[in-house]
Design brief:
single chain, about 325 residues, mainly alpha, 15 helices
């Protein structure tokens, strides 16, 4: 279905004022998510829907206006944020229009949106660093390290130790054991950010399908969850991550870099194969006609036990060769 076909169906035009209000509401959700992290994925998925709707209706300038007005809400936090999010929302709307016209698959749209977000974040960091004449990433990392180094002397931690009757010796031992993990956390932000953006783009596409269908704009449906698949060569990401993590320590200057790169790869590709593992599990549910209630209970059991949750990505990896679901693969 092409973009021209939309105009030919004589579908009712969306109310611009209502879409602007929806955009503002989405940004409110995004701001509130500072205190409730998971809610941020929903806010991120919602902010671009009004602009996408207007763009697919051929109302390009109104789509741009909607994006700018909604993003201006963030000016009270930082004056640079409205510019960043305006470009992001407009860019996502253009990607939807392009992919809609070119009949691209849902996963291509999700991938393009995720790449756009990551590229804009990198450009944002570079531009702000140049303007401030200071590398903001390095500055944040140094501040974080200072907090970690001063962690045992923090007054709140001291009060907590007294409350829980933890001695200085016990806390020092625990701190030394976990210090390397705490120092590593900021270096895992790239993979965690990619997961966050990917999930936001995925939810965004599902919402667009259901919302736009009511007004006659039909996007390609997502494949059935039980048929989700990955090309076999994606397993190379898991292999590369494992190699980087298990490389014997030989030089402190490189050991930390290898570990950080390896863990980031394991998180990213582990997320893909976790989704694939649940897809395999869902296919097994269908094969044995397991009732919905039992499906939910089984998934909850897997989610609450670390050992069981590790089984899920392993199932996804093994499916590449064993093909549990008997999918037709080229």
């Amino acid at each position: 279905m092409s973009f021209d076909n939309i105009n030919n169906i004589n579908q009712p035009r969306s109310n611009l004022f209502k879409l602007i209000l929806l955009t503002v509401f989405a940004y409110v959700v995004l701001v509130i998510s500072i205190f409730i992290p998971f809610l941020g994925i929903l806010g991120l998925a919602l902010i671009s829907i009004p602009a996408i709707k207007l763009m697919l209706e051929g109302r390009i300038w109104e789509s741009i206006i909607c994006a700018i007005i909604g993003s201006s809400l963030l000016a009270f936090i930082d004056l640079t944020l409205p510019i960043f999010f305006s470009i992001l929302v407009i860019g996502i709307a253009v990607i939807y229009l392009f992919c809609f016209n070119k009949n691209k698959s849902p996963f291509q749209i999700i991938a393009f949106n995720s790449i756009l977000f990551i590229v804009l974040i990198v450009l944002y960091v570079i531009v702000v660093s140049l303007v401030k004449q200071q590398n903001i990433v390095v500055g944040l990392m140094n501040n974080y390290k200072a907090v970690i180094n001063n962690f045992p002397n923090d007054p709140f931690i001291k009060q907590y130790m007294q409350l829980m009757a933890i001695s200085d010796t016990q806390f020092k031992s625990l701190y030394e054991q976990s210090r390397n993990i705490l120092v590593m956390i900021p270096y895992l932000i790239p993979s965690l950010l990619l997961m966050y953006v990917f999930l936001g783009s995925l939810i965004n596409y599902y919402w667009c399908i259901s919302i736009f269908k009511k007004s006659g704009v039909i996007l390609k449906g997502m494949p059935l969850f039980k048929t989700w698949d990955l090309p076999w060569y994606y397993v190379s990401g898991i292999i590369a991550g494992l190699i980087l993590v298990v490389i014997p320590h030989f030089n402190p200057a490189y050991d930390f870099v290898f570990d950080a790169a390896g863990i980031n790869l394991l998180i990213i590709f582990g997320m893909f194969y976790t989704a694939l593992g649940f897809s395999v599990l869902w296919g097994i549910f269908d094969k044995f006609r397991i009732a919905p209630l039992w499906r939910v209970l089984i998934i909850l059991i897997f989610s609450f036990f670390l050992i069981l949750i590790i089984v899920i990505p392993i199932m996804g990896i093994l499916d590449v060769w064993i093909n549990f679901r008997k999918l037709e693969r080229r």
